[in-house]
Amino acid sequence: MPDYKLIGKNYTTTDLRAKVTGRAKYAEDFRADGMVFLKLLLSPMPHARVRRLDASAALAMPGVEG
What we know:
mainly alpha, 2 helices, about 15% helix, about 0% strand, Ald_Oxase/Xan_DH_a/b_sf, Aldehyde oxidase/xanthine dehydrogenase a/b hammerhead domain-containing protein, Ald_Oxase/Xan_DH_a/b
């Protein structure tokens, strides 16, 4: 059984102030050179599969990679 020594006691963590003030950095806050983003497309129908996707409009936009 785990030892619950912190329950009911005051304690602080090293990143507490950063989290409370909104200055904490999380994985999604970091950007790398050449980083790309995606949008996952799911079928609106249960157990269905996406057979075709017309991405021509998106690919025509600046910064979009195929």
